[in-house]
Every structure is written in C-alpha cells, then in structure tokens.
C-alpha cells in the first residue's frame, strides 16, 4: 500500500498569534483508509486539513498528495483529487439551488453542460436528494445541506475526501444519516477519508487515528490502540467511548480485559461473566 | 410552587397569509420552581417557539403563559412582555454570536444596565457573573473577540447570569464545544441550579444530558407536548423514542442489551455509575 | 407591518406568468412602466388598470392577499400625491393658503400620479411575486452579456448577485436570532427616543457584521477548495430558454401599446 497523503515536518503559525498552530507534523495516510484526526477545539486539526488542500501556506515542511509535492504551480491539479466538506453547512453552499450548488465545482472545471446535468443528477441520487434539486438552501435542514455538499464532492470523483467536523453542527438524526452515507460513498468510490473530529464515537469508526494536541501529533494508531487510553483521552479534552466507559467503571470491582471493548463486545463479555457465575 | 404554566397555548407564524405555519397547538405544561427540566424533540418540533414564548419574545396566538405572577396572552402589551423577560434569562444556541462590546466586562454588564442598574451596580454584577462561570478576572478588560470559542461562550453565559434571572433557559448550550467544554458547561449549570436555586430549562438533542441532569423531561413532536415525566419514565422505551425521532441514551441502549442477556435492573439505570453498580452487584451475588 | 409587504417576495403558485422566461418578464415589466407615462386620459388609465388586473388574476395569487400586500405602500403614494396636489397650479382654484393651493389641474394631476404609482407597484410586485430572485439575477446576467465586449466583468457580477441573493434569507434569519438574543438581554427596540432607538441597533449591527465577515471568509475558502478561479471559462449549468409563450407575451404587450396609442390619438 502506498501513502496517498504524506506530511513531512509540517509547521505553521498564524501571523498574528503566538506559538505554532501546527508543529513539526509528520504522518502518512494509506490509500483507501479512513483516518480520524482527533483533538480538542483549537488543537490545530482544521489548520492541518487546510494545509493538505493547499488552502494555506504552511511555513515549513512538505506535503505530498499521491506522490506529488504540493506547490503553487500544481495546487489546482492536486485539489482535483481532493473533495472537502466543511463544518458549517451554510457557509459552503454557493449555489442558489441544490442542483446549482452541486454543479458549482463542475462549472469551475469547464465540464460541458450535457455532461454536467448527468453528473449532477447522479450525485444527487447518490446522496438521496434528487427530489430536492430545485430547492433553495433556506428551506433545507443542516443535514440536508451537508448531503448536498457531499453530492458536490461526489460529482467531482475525487480520490480523497476531507471532512472538517462535517457533522458537528448537525442534530443527531442528521449526523447519523451523514455517517451512514459516508460509509456507503467510501465503498462505492474507493475514497480515502480524512475525518477531522472531536467525536470519539466517530473516531471509533476509523481504520487509523491521529491524535493531535496543541498542533503536535501526540500519538497515532488503530482505534484499539488509541481508544483504550481512557485517562489520556480525558486529559486531552476528549471523551471515552461508551463501552470503555463501562469497562473503566467496573475495573475496581472486576478483572476487566485490557483490549479495546466497544459496546457490543462489552455486553457479550458481561453476559459470559454472568453465565460463569451461575 | 408552580413557577411556569402553559395553558392551552397555541402559536401560528404569519397567520392569514400563504406563509402561515402552525408551530404549537394546545400546549399544557407546568414547571415547578427550582427544578431542572429538559425539553427534547427533533428539529422543528416546536421547542424553540416554546422557549421564545417563555421569554416573552413571542406572544401566544391562543391560550396563556404564566411565569410567576405575570400572565401573558395574545392581547398582552409589550410592557407586560418586557416584565416577563426580567425573570427569565435565555442562553441561546451559539450565544457567542450576541457579543458586541469592546470589553468582556462591558458586554456582561450590558444586560443589567438595560434593566436599569447603574454602571457601578452593573459592573459589580458582571464581576460576580464572571466568577460564577469560571472566567479569570484578568480577562475583564480584554476584547471578547480575542478569546477562544469556549471562553466566548462563557462570556455570553455570564451576560445572561448577570441579569439574575430566576428562570434560566438553555438552548443547546454545548453545541460546537469539544467534549471537555461540554462536560464543564453542563456541570456549571447543574451547580448553578443547586446553589442559586434556579429553575433551569434545558433544550437539547443530547439524551444523555437530559437523563443525567433533568428532574423532568418534556417530549415534543409536531408542535405538541407528547409526554412529560421523570427521565426514567421517558427513556425506558426505545421504540417509543425512535417513533418520536429521538435518540436512545447510550446507557439505556446498553442496559436494555444486558436485559436481553439475563441482567435485571430496578430502578432502570440512567447513568454509567448506576448501571455498573447494579451490574457488579448481580455478578457478585451470582457468584455467591 | 413590513411582514405584510408583498413587493420582493416570491409566491410559488405556478401560474402561466410564473412559467414565462424571466428575461421576458423583466423587459416587459420595464416596458410597461415606461408606457404608463404615455397615458394621458382616464380612459387610458382605465384600460391599463384593467390589463393589470387581468395580469394579477392570472398569477393565481388571491386578490385579497395581493391587496393586503399592496396596502401598506398606498400610504406612501397618497403622501406623494397630496404634496403634488398642494404645489401644482392651473385651472379653477378651489382653496388656497399661502403657497399651498388646491386647483383643478392639481387634482387631475394628483389623480394621474396616483394611478401611475399604483400601476407601477402592482406590475413590479407581479414580477417579484412570480419570479424567484435567482431567475431575475439570471435574466440580468443574460441581458448584460453584450457588456462583456467592453470588459465589464459580467460573470463575476452575476455570481456576486446570485450569492448575495442566496444569503439574504440566511442573514435575515441571523438578524432575527441576534435581535432575540439582545431583546432577551433587555434591549427595547420599540420604545424610547429616536437617539435611544438608533443606539439599540448597535448590538445587532456589530454581531451581524462579524458573522457576515466570517461567513464570507469561510465561503471564499470553500469556493477555492471547489476549484473556483474566477468567472472566465466556466461552463454554465443554468441556461434560460425562450419559448413560444414568451413571444406571445411580447405580442400581447404590442397590442396593449397599439390600443394605448389609439386611445391617445382618438380621445
């Protein structure tokens, strides 16, 4: 497996602020992986996402996308490979209607109109929004707007999808539909997903987790490796997944397993334990 | 003592136009003084209209809303609504978007000044409020726009507390905060409710918070109150919750899964601590 | 009061008028407003009034609702008409006081002006009632296209217009939220001296500006991420199509013009 995103000692500081927003970050993202970038608010996660899409000029280091170094002369080429969904559903909705918004990226890339119509319809069907094609954004819920944003990405057929807290402003129902949709899209289009989040349950869905604190990469590994570090997660301003929470609450009374336990596994384990006592 | 009463309240937006929309129908609701109530319901179920009626930001189209000794109906004057507002404070969703003053202290003192306090009194209340929400006194002279998101949220909350409301309405107060911020803010309100003897009304999508903090849960759907009761009465039926577009609290879902595997719960657990206490007890008693 | 004003609001009743090409509607509305000024007799105004009524009825919007939407503006017209009456001279003098007078010509003039205003407001309300702002923007872009030759950045202007329109409801919503938040903090927008009321706008304007700038900033980043590099060479998803019914609408307007000229010549 090759690395589709590769960051080497990336640093950045905002001109009017003290301290680095990103400090000497190095990591690889494997093609086809779902990678969660996790950290508290203000830890530099979003800055990192922007750096990967060439949306800010980082001061030091290099980022390679599919083996190509991001530079000024190839940035528009590289952006073709990357789809980006931002946090605020309203502030990325450019078009006056749903269909117009999905078409926006295609228009930017000079796609002929007949082809554009097919692609817009396809993308809207993919995200289950075709009945809403002529609706204006003001009449949509946050979750629906994010689905439109995903359709805009899907229509461009990118290789990488970056989600910058794309579900954090949605209600639970909206979040659920977006996450289900994401899993589906990822399968269908063989996407590499980089999901910025502070939602630990969302992180648990990933193949790999990058743990960020104050612009530094403090740890990385599989969910099983990262999510079992309960105290450290809390210290970093994050939460502990529910199964682990139960495990931690029981550990004074019982001999609990060391490995990562999601809710289902924890239920199974307790059930076995109950049967043993009978 | 009943502090808040909704008596057959209905509300219609833009009545008599093609844009007419019924937001609330026949709401009857009593909230006792010095209690913690959670209002839950999916987006568009009428929660935000309900809290705007409570703060006199909207007038009921039919029925009446009573807060303390003040009752407002469709024919109430603006003065009556303003009076209502003196007893009620609202922390809106993303309240940091209401900040506008040059300094943190001035912004927090804005509310009390509008209520007729002198500059001195208002600043004293502002200083008190800063302590209550855990803002360092050295931040008083900073611009609120220099602060981090979490700190801005605290400034906005302090701005509401400085008005010394008896009733505090919280509309998704933790939206957009990271887990630590969410924990701290929710603990802060629970503490305030106890210490200041406030009547707290929390509007939330986080069923875990409703289960953990509320004495009473009000479930809304399609502009009507469909159920009220203690968290244990509300959160015990996952199917009913799903039918009303509500998430099942993780603890409930977990406990229910354990029930299917032979565990028994009485009372039904609402928090992880309650859950694990009963689980380990059953494992121990089984072993004996 | 302003929630009732219809001008500028789109009501989707999907009538024949709704389905006309926005370019046709835009040009014909302007054309109609111009020919109103050629009417110089009660007969001519009656004819134009009747035509306007037919147009309003064919939008399928309830007449009572339309009238309610126009009413608040009538007061502004009446005010203008009364000023006009008091200051114009000629013909029989009915009443005068200092520089003010009510004369025969003044009354007739006032009446004409009232009719003109009413017709203009009715027709432009019909335009906005039956055409979503977005399509008006499209029509403007399409009609401005020849200006590209003299280096007017038509595509950029059109995109700006479309984005501005798209954000109107978002910002109105935001304004409402901020107003509610400040009212909850004890601001009173409805009473007090003018100075006090002007001051009470500051706590709304500052947060609104900050939010609008943040939105603009995020929107610009999102547009860049989606490959926007300026208007030139972009392909177009949305195009306007001229149909037979649009040509028919133009012909109707030609007939209206001919009748109007006839009335002017023979009465």
TrEMBL record, chain A:
GO terms for molecular function: ATP binding; ATP hydrolysis activity; ATPase-coupled transmembrane transporter activity. It is a peripheral membrane protein. It is found in: Cell membrane. Residues 5-239 form the ABC transporter domain. Keywords: ATP-binding, Cell membrane, Membrane, Nucleotide-binding, Translocase, Transport. GO terms for cellular component: ATP-binding cassette (ABC) transporter complex. CDD domains: ABC_cobalt_CbiO_domain1. SUPFAM superfamilies: P-loop containing nucleoside triphosphate hydrolases. The keyword Chloroplast does not apply. InterPro entries: AAA+_ATPase, ABC_transporter-like_ATP-bd, ABC_transporter-like_CS, ABC_transpr_CbiO/EcfA_su, ECF_ABC_transporter_ATP-bd, EcfA_1, P-loop_NTPase. PANTHER family: ENERGY-COUPLING FACTOR TRANSPORTER ATP-BINDING PROTEIN ECFA1, HEAVY METAL TRANSPORTER. Belongs to the ABC transporter superfamily. This is ATPase component.
Automatic annotation (TrEMBL), chain B:
It is a peripheral membrane protein. GO terms for cellular component: ATP-binding cassette (ABC) transporter complex. One of its GO terms (molecular function) is ATP hydrolysis activity. It is found in: Cell membrane. Keywords: ATP-binding, Cell membrane, Membrane, Nucleotide-binding, Translocase, Transport. It comes from the Bacteria. SUPFAM superfamilies: P-loop containing nucleoside triphosphate hydrolases. Its EC number is 7.-.-.-. The keyword NAD does not apply. CDD domains: ABC_cobalt_CbiO_domain1. Residues 4-247 form the ABC transporter domain. Pfam families: ABC_tran. Its main location: membrane. InterPro entries: AAA+_ATPase, ABC_transporter-like_ATP-bd, ABC_transporter-like_CS, ABC_transpr_CbiO/EcfA_su, ECF_ABC_transporter_ATP-bd, EcfA2, P-loop_NTPase. Belongs to the ABC transporter superfamily. Energy-coupling factor EcfA family. ATP-binding (A) component of a common energy-coupling factor (ECF) ABC-transporter complex. Forms a stable energy-coupling factor (ECF) transporter complex composed of 2 membrane-embedded substrate-binding proteins (S component), 2 ATP-binding proteins (A component) and 2 transmembrane proteins (T component). This is Energy-coupling factor transporter ATP-binding protein EcfA2. It comes from Paucilactobacillus wasatchensis. The lineage of its organism: Bacteria, Bacillati, Bacillota, Bacilli, Lactobacillales.
UniProtKB/TrEMBL annotation, chain C:
It holds the Pfam family CbiQ. It is found in: Cell membrane. GO terms for cellular component: plasma membrane. The keyword Nucleus does not apply. InterPro entries: ABC/ECF_trnsptr_transmembrane, EcfT. The chain crosses the membrane at residues 30-57, 69-87, 117-140, 152-172, 248-266. Its main location: membrane. The keyword Cell division does not apply. Forms a stable energy-coupling factor (ECF) transporter complex composed of 2 membrane-embedded substrate-binding proteins (S component), 2 ATP-binding proteins (A component) and 2 transmembrane proteins (T component). Belongs to the energy-coupling factor EcfT family. Transmembrane (T) component of an energy-coupling factor (ECF) ABC-transporter complex. Unlike classic ABC transporters this ECF transporter provides the energy necessary to transport a number of different substrates. This is Energy-coupling factor transporter transmembrane protein EcfT. It comes from Paucilactobacillus wasatchensis. The gene is ecfT.
């Amino acid at each position: 497996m090759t690395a589709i995103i590769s960051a080497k000692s990336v640093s950045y500081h905002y001109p009017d602020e003290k301290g680095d927003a990103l400090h000497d970050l190095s990591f690889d993202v494997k093609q086809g992986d779902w990678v969660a970038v996790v950290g508290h608010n203000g830890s530099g996660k979003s800055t990192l996402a922007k750096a990967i899409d060439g949306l800010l000029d980082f001061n030091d280091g290099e980022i390679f996308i599919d083996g190509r170094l991001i530079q000024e002369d190839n940035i528009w080429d590289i952006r073709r490979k990357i789809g980006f969904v931002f946090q605020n559903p309203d502030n990325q909705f450019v078009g006056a209607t749903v269909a117009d918004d999905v078409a926006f990226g295609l228009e930017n890339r000079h796609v002929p109109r007949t082809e554009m119509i097919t692609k817009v319809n396809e993308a809207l069907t993919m995200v289950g929004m075709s009945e809403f094609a002529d609706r204006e954004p003001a009449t949509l819920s946050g979750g629906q707007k994010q689905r439109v944003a995903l359709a805009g990405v899907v229509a461009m057929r990118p290789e990488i999808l970056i989600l910058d807290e794309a579900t954090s402003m949605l209600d639970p129902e909206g979040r659920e539909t977006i996450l289900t949709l994401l899993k589906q899209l990822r399968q269908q289009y063989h996407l590499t997903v980089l999901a910025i989040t502070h939602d630990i349950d969302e992180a648990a869905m990933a193949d790999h987790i990058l743990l960020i604190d104050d612009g530094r990469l403090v740890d990385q590994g599989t969910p099983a490796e990262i999510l079992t570090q309960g105290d450290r997660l809390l210290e970093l301003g994050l939460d502990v997944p529910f199964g682990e929470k139960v495990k931690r609450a029981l550990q004074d009374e019982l001999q609990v397993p060391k490995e990562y336990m999601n809710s289902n596994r924890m239920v199974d384990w307790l059930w076995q334990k109950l049967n043993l006592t009978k | 003592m009943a502090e808040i009463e909704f008596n057959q309240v209905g509300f219609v937006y833009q009545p008599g136009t093609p844009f007419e929309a019924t937001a609330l129908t026949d709401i009857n609701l009593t909230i006792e003084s010095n209690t913690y109530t959670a209002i839950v319901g999916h987006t568009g179920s009428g929660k935000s209209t309900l809290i705007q009626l409570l703060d006199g930001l909207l007038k009921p189209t039919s029925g009446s809303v009573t807060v303390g000794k003040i009752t407002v109906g469709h024919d109430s004057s603006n003065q009556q609504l303003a009076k209502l507002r003196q007893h009620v404070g609202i922390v809106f969703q993303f309240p940091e978007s209401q900040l506008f003053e040059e300094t943190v202290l001035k912004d927090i003192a804005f509310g009390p000044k509008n209520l007729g306090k002198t500059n001195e009194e208002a600043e004293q209340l502002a200083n008190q409020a800063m302590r209550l929400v855990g803002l360092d006194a050295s931040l008083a002279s900073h611009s609120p726009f220099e602060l981090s998101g979490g700190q801005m949220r605290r400034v906005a909350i302090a701005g509401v507390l400085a008005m010394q409301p008896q009733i505090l309405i919280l509309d998704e107060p933790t939206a957009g905060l990271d887990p630590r911020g969410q924990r701290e803010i929710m603990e802060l309100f629970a503490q305030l409710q106890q210490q200041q003897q406030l009547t707290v009304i929390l509007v939330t999508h986080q069923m875990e918070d409703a289960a953990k903090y509320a004495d009473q849960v009000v479930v809304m759907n399609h502009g009507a109150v469909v159920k009220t009761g203690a968290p244990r009465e509300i959160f015990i039926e996952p199917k009913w919750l799903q039918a009303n577009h509500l998430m099942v609290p993780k603890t409930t879902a977990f406990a229910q899964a354990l029930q299917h595997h032979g565990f028994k719960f009485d009372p039904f657990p609402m928090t992880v601590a309650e859950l694990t206490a009963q689980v380990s007890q059953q494992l121990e008693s089984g072993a004996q | 009061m302003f929630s009732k004003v219809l001008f500028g609001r789109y009501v989707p009743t999907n009538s024949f008028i709704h389905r006309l090409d926005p370019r046709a509607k835009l040009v014909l509305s302007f054309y109609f407003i111009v020919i109103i000024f050629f009417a110089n007799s009660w007969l001519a105004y009656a004819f134009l009034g009747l035509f306007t009524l037919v147009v309003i009825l064919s939008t399928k919007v309830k007449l009572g609702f339309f009238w309610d939407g126009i009413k608040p503006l009538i007061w502004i017209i009446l005010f203008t008409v009364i000023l006009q009456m008091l200051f114009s001279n000629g013909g029989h003098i009915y009443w005068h006081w200092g520089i003010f007078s009510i004369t025969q010509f003044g009354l007739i003039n006032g009446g004409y002006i009232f009719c003109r205003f009413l017709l203009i407001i009715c027709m432009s309300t019909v335009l906005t009632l039956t055409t979503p702002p977005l399509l008006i923007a499209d029509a403007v872009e399409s009609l401005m296209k020849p200006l590209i030759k003299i280096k007017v950045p038509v595509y950029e202007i059109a995109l700006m217009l479309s984005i501005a329109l798209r954000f109107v409801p978002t910002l109105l919503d935001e304004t409402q939220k901020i107003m509610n938040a400040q009212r909850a903090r004890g601001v009173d927008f409805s009473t007090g001296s003018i100075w006090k009321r002007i001051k009470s706008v500051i706590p709304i304007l500052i947060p609104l500006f900050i939010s609008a700038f943040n939105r603009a900033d995020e929107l610009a980043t999102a547009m860049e991420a989606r490959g926007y590099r300026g208007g030139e060479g972009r392909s177009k998803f949305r195009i306007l199509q001229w149909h037979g019914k649009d040509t028919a609408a133009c012909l109707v307007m030609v007939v209206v013009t001919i009748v109007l000229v006839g009335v002017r010549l023979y009465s």
